[in-house]
Amino acid sequence: xxxxxxxxxxxxxxxxxxxxxxxxxxxxxxxxxxxxxxxxxxxxxxxxxxxxxxxxxxxxxxxxxxxxxxxxxxxxxxxxxxxxxxxxxxxxxxxxxxxxxxxxxxxxxxxxxxxxxxxxxxxxxxxxxxxxxxxxxxxxxxxxxxxxxxxxxxxxxxxxxxxxxxxxxxxxxxxxxxxxxxxxxxxxxxxxxxxxxxxxxxxxxxxxxxxxxxxxxxxxxxxxxxxxxxxxxxxxxxxxxxxxxxxxxxxxxxxxxxxxxxxxxxxxxxxxxxxxxxxxxxxxxxxxxxxxxxxxxxxxxxxxxx
Length: 306
Ligand SMILES: Nc1ncnc2c1ncn2[C@@H]1O[C@H](COP(=O)(O)OP(=O)(O)O)[C@@H](O)[C@H]1O
Ligand SMILES: [Mg+2]
Prior knowledge:
Phosphorylase Kinase, domain 1, two-stranded antiparallel ribbon, binds adenosine-5'-diphosphate
C-alpha cells in the first residue's frame, strides 16, 4: 500500500478541522479508501504530493495510462458537493476535468495538470496575467435562482457566527476590520447582481501549468457571486506575501494589470479583496487557529491603495 507517508502539517490540519477523534478516524481510514479507489478505477497510486494541506492527493495513472490525480476530501458534505459541482460545470474549460467521483469515500479522480508547476514559479506580472486570462475562461456560467452552490451572502455569515460566539463582539479578530468587511459585504450584496459560478479560491497554488491549456485551475470552492470577487484570493496570496519586500507595490501592480488589461473595476476588486482578507482570517479562527497576521496586513495594504 502506498500513500501512507503523511506530512506532519497535513496531519495537524486534519486534526484541527475535524477534531482529534474524527480526524484520527479519518486518517486511519485513508488506506482503505485509497485501496478501494485503486481497485474500482484501476489505478497505480504514487506518493502523495508534498504540498498536502487539508486534503489527501496523489498522482495516479489510470489503467489506460492516463496521468490523473486521486484526491480524498477531508471534509465531505456541502463543501465537497460544491467542489464537484463546480468542476462539472467548468467541464474542463480553464479547470482540470473531473474524471470520476465516489461520494461514499469523498474521492475524486481528476485530470492531472502536467507539468503542474504553480503560479509560485512565475513572476508577479506573469502570474497576474495567467489569472486574468483564466478568469475569462471560468467566469461564464450565470446561475439560475435555484442553483445548489453556496453564495457570498452565505459566506458572510462567518461574521455572524464570530459575533454569536463572542457576545456580539469580534473576539480575537480586530473589530475595525470585521466592521469594514461586514460593510463591504452588506453594500455589494444589496445590489442584487446576477451571480455567476466563481472558483472562489483562485490563488497561486491552485493554478497549475498544463498542456491542454497554458494554466488550469484546481481545487475550486464553487461559490455563487460577483465576478469582481474572483481575483480576491489571488490578491492576498501567497501566504508570505506581506513578508516580501515591496508587498504593496506587488498588490498595486496586480490591481493595475487586472483593471488595465482585463477590464476589471479596480475599486470593486480592491474592496472585495479587503472583505475576503478579513473573511479568510475569520475562517482560520473557526478552523481552530489564531488570527493570521498576513491577511489582516494585506487588508491594510489594499486599504491604503484606495
Ligand atoms: N489535478 C491536479 N494536477 C496536478 N497536481 C494536482 C492536481 N490536483 C492537486 N494537485 C496537487 O495536490 C496539491 C493539493 O491539491 P488541492 O486540490 O489544491 O488540495 P487542497 O484542497 O488541500 O488545497 C496541489 O497543490 C497540487 O500540488
Ligand atoms: Mg489547493
